[in-house]
Amino acid sequence: MTDKGIAHGRFQVLHLKHMEYLLAAKMRCQKLYIGITHPDISVYPARSSLDIHGTTKRDNPLTYIERYEMLLDALLDFGVKREEFEIIPFPISHPEILMEYIPSDAVHYMNLCGAWDEDRRRILSELGAKVEVLFQKSEEEKGITSSRIREMIADEEAWEMYVPKTVYAYILTHGIEKRIQQLQYIYTPSLEQ
């Protein structure tokens, strides 16, 4: 078991596959740093054409603090001790400043499910970071995604079974489902045009 590890993602909506990834990473290190990518898309927008979800508000409806609080609640609910994890900004789209945000001696745990994942691994490797792949799957094997959950929320379909119970409660308590529905409508072209 290593001393420090890092797992990262947008977590735009935190779901059970994210939790599987985070818990697998935590099992490999004493302290897990959870990096939130695109902490603010106006300051840290996507630069890579492979990062297809890193530029619009529709794909990034949750603020940094909302994602932070959801991660915190879910990890504690899953039994991870508070002193064993930290939640940090992780501006992967701006590698020239990324190392200012993270411990340089940590192992980066990743899942590889597509071209953007491979590009992030390349970025980290070029920065001299040690990367360990936890799961490698095709897009079809990936399972539920945040994009799909946001679509389900927008279409008022049942989605609660795909997220930790604390996330479901948080989204409803803070009215985030209404924001997701509004953004879906704003960014969906009219069929009449």
From TrEMBL:
Keyword Protein biosynthesis: no
Domain Cytidyltransferase-like positions: 7-151
UniProt key word Transferase: yes
Keywords in alphabetical order: Nucleotidyltransferase, Transferase
Family matches, as InterPro entries: Cyt_trans-like, Rossmann-like_a/b/a_fold
Pfam family, one: CTP_transf_like
Organism of derivation: Mediterraneibacter hominis
One Gene Ontology term of the molecular function aspect: nucleotidyltransferase activity
Protein name listed in UniProt: Nicotinate-nucleotide adenylyltransferase
